[in-house]
Amino acid sequence: YHNAIKAQQYAIDIVKVNERGRFYTNDGSELEDVFSFGEPVYSPVDGIVVALVDTIPNSEITLAPSDSLNPAGNHVVIEFETDRFVFLAHLEPYSISINEGDTISVGDFIGTIG
To answer: N or C: which end of the chain has fewer CB atoms below 10 A?
Structure first.
């Protein structure tokens, strides 16, 4: 579904699933129901942190973003080659452990999923 939006055409949603292939428990309506919630996120690339946001509160689980001004929520942008970026979105507020301008490596802790 990301292909329908040009800015998201290369987006990938990564979720933790159980042995049945489900990514949540109960009815999935609470953040804590989602198996990925609070899980660590590590850098998939070597690069430089060029932007980040870490202060947006978690929002309710909905099919559409509940914050139209910040649909990605807390996020980190890493430049790994000239004009090539990785955008890691939907992170937990105040969990990001790096700063703009930091040089990071594959496997460095970024933050947790919100």
So the answer is: N
